[in-house]
Amino acid sequence: MISPGVGQVAFRWAVFLIVFSGILLLFVQPGTASFVITVFMLVVGLLFAALVFVLVRIDKR
Fold this sequence. Notes:
Keywords: Membrane, Transmembrane, Transmembrane helix. With about 60 residues, the chain is an all-alpha fold.
């Protein structure tokens, strides 16, 4: 369903989003638009990583 190379690149993008949005959460003030966008990007990164993980696992079977 998804080739290993594409899966690896997609997972790296997901980790990039998760790490940098997690770091940004330490510096932005809660209640601001930046905080909401950063939390949204963290959730998007987590969902994207989960999707890539599932697609790669399905492809291995």
